[in-house]
Amino acid sequence: MKFFLDTANLREIREVSSWGILDGVTTNPSLLAKENAPFEELVRAICEACPGPVSLECVSAQGPDIVAEARGLAKKAPNVVVKIPITLEGLRATKILAGEGIGVNMTLVFSPTQALLAAKAGARFVSPFIGRLDDISEEGMGLVEEIVRIYENYRFPTEVIVASIRHPRHVVEAALLGADICTIPFGVIEKLVGHPLTDAGIEKFLRDWAKVRA
Ligand code: G3P
Questions:
Q1: Ligand 1: which of 25, 27, 28 to mutate, most ligand atoms within 8 Å of CB?
Q2: Are 2 and 16 in contact (CB under 8 A)?
């Protein structure tokens, strides 16, 4: 499973990169707005800090505008992937961009039919937002399960990015389902390593080691 970081925060990206487990970054307008930094400079720094795919979101609504915006974003760095919300206009744009070799991350996906259409249009990634489904008492992970099965049935190469992750259990369940990627907020990714029994074990070993004669 690949781990992407769901953030536009450079400190977080550099920190997780130093752990040796960072495969990519996903941003969105809300995450970028939190950084309060000039867009161009921030994007350049993020794309340098993370050599893997970096998703930048298009905000245009009409097909030709989405295509023009996406081409501009894709020029910013070789590892840029353009994030496009799943709409009919977004699908049209995806087909064109995929034909030009520009990677598309089809986002704001909440149903298996949306995911199927994204794959047919040639999206490189699809992003089901599971936490937001859980938030309205739906089963976010059920959607991931359906998408993974559909893609396997037809051998679509589109990779599933499990997005809107809220806690470590989401990561475990996504991995059990064989999802390709989790895009994880920093607050969740730092929780993945810790276990109280590991801490207690280290403490005991150190206490006992102190009793060993040199
Ligand atoms: O990558 C998608 C993610 O940023 C959305 O997360 O927590 O706003 O639902 P959230």
A1: 28
A2: no
211 flagged as catalytic: no
In a domain, 214, yes or no: no
Taking the whole predicted model, whether its pTM rises above 0.85 is answered as yes
pLDDT by residue (tens digit) across 49-72? 999 999 999 999 999 999 999 999
Whichever domain contains 201, its CATH number is: 3.20.20.70
User: Which domain covers residue 81, as residue numbers?
Assistant: 2-209
Report how far ligand 1's centroid is from the alpha carbon of 59 (Å). Answer: 16
Please tell me the total count of domains within the chain. Answer: 1
Please tell me the residue having the least CA distance from ligand 1 atom 6: 164
